Amino acid sequence: MKTYKKFYWLISAGLIAIVSGCKLTKPVQQQARLKTPETFTGQTDTASIADIPWKTFFKDVRLVALIDTALHHNLDLKIAAQRIEMARSGVWAAHGAMLPVVGADISGGGRKFGDYTMDGVGNYDTNFSENLDNDRRLPAPFLPDYFVGLRSGWEVDIWGKLKTQKRAAYNRLLSTEKGRQAVITGLVAEIANSYYELTALDSELEIIHRNLALQDSASQTVRIQKEAGRATELAVRQFDAQLLNTRSMEVEIHQKIIENENRLNLMLGRFPQAVERTPIQNLVLPDGIQAGFPAAMLRRRPDVQEAQWNLQAAYSEQQAARLAFLPSLNITAFIGLNAFKSNLLFNPGSVAYSALGGLTAPLVNRRALKAGQKRAEAASLEAYYGYNKTVLNAFQEISTGLKKLENSRKIGNFKTQEVAVLQGAVSVSRDLFIGGYANYLEVITAQRSVLDAELTLTNARRDQFLALIELYRSLGGGWE
């Protein structure tokens, strides 16, 4: 009767544990995601420049070769690939947790029981039994124990906790793969940006050289006029100062070229060396830039997909943290040879085996599980907000890129006209100065203005390419 009551209370405790745990299995509803616009402002075409492979999108063969080199040797990309391998090992570990663990066990030990304990008295009394032969008599007072065999443990996934953890690990793997793709898009865009920066610097250097020749000629002219008494020493010094200032700009541009080449070589995974490039004047911008539809962008853009998989993984981890409160079914077993004498260990009578299964549920001091649950819930919310932020950032980048591309083209057109006007002004001011109808300050101002305008025009043209690249990346282009 007493045994029955103990068994009854044991079953009751188990049922209470199950009932208390089941209260936590209610599905956790994720908040609604951000509702995105159906179209981009001013865009109606379904096609998108992001659908164009980067090898086709970039027409310059030198730039294509640089990007191809970077995709094979860039260290950030190699690091991203190793993150994928780490995430893949997490999937293997989660899958392995669902299977039984079997291990080989070779152990030996011993124990001396107290003379006035149940085990000590029982072992002492057993040796006086007439049913025991010499092999079965217990060594005294030290009792050895030898075991050779297999031991196994298995948590049966009755609630789907381990399956949920595996799904979370798999989502993390998909997230890291999208992260690698995001590195690729960023790398392609960064290399293209550096390349066009270099072409713009080359153009600036060419403008500087042309203006140096112009300013040097003007300086020689004013020296001749000084000797003829038609100009002052102040005018000579002003022209010389302008010439020195332009030469210092030449040195600055040379330094910027070195810095950009070195930065580009670093992305290519190689030591500093010269970078071949096409003059920016020979590069052509495509017409009819289209962004397509937001839905296609969200499917294509890697960082948005990465945030989405992170969101799914966080949700699965949250569910797994809740399922941890439920009872777990664990099965342990062993089979092998067990004896208290080494010479009897491999005797057929030493074969031993056991199997045990039981439900265990956390009842008291579940703070660690509750802390894990709170952390998983907070991580899920963080992933949710991170996803929304990524989507908002994508729309902001695209909207800015579309307007920047449009406005940089307008600026380029105005600057082209300004340069043409100022180049004419330089020629006129020089003729007037030689004829005595203009002073030297007007010549210096005209030369400085045309230099600034030509440099600004080069930067405006560069900005058009940079805006196009940024829009291409923002729409999810640049990876295959």
Helicity, in percent? 55-70%
Low-pLDDT runs of 5+ residues are: none
Count all strands and give the number.
Answer: 4
Number of helices: 11
- Give the SSE order as H and E letters: HHHHEHEHHHHEEHH
Sheet with the most strands: spatial strand order = 1-2-3-4
| Biggest beta sheet attributes | 4 strands, antiparallel
Which CATH-level-2 architecture of the largest domain?
A: Up-down Bundle
How does this structure look, described?
The structure is a single chain. The protein is α+β, with helices and mostly antiparallel strands and 480 residues long. The chain has 2 domains: 353 residues, Outer membrane efflux proteins (OEP), CATH 1.20.1600.10; 90 residues, Outer membrane efflux proteins (OEP) (Single Sheet), CATH 2.20.200.10. It is 63% helix and 10% strand. Strands 1-2-3-4 form a 4-stranded antiparallel sheet, with no helix packed on it.
List keywords for this structure.
480 residues; alpha+beta; Outer membrane efflux proteins (OEP); 2 domains; four-stranded antiparallel β-sheet; 4 strands; 10% strand
Provide a concise account of the structure shown.
Keywords: Lipoprotein, Membrane, Palmitate, Transmembrane, Transmembrane beta strand. This protein is α+β, with helices and mostly antiparallel strands.
Q: What is this structure's SSE topology?
A:
Layout: H1 2-22, H2 54-57, H3 61-73, H4 75-96, E1 101-111, H5 118-126, E2 143-156, H6 161-227, H7 233-267, H8 294-300, H9 302-323, E3 328-339, E4 351-360, H10 367-435, H11 440-474
Antiparallel strand pairs: 1-2, 2-3, 3-4
Helix pairs in contact: 3-6, 4-6, 6-7, 6-9, 6-11, 7-11, 9-10, 10-11
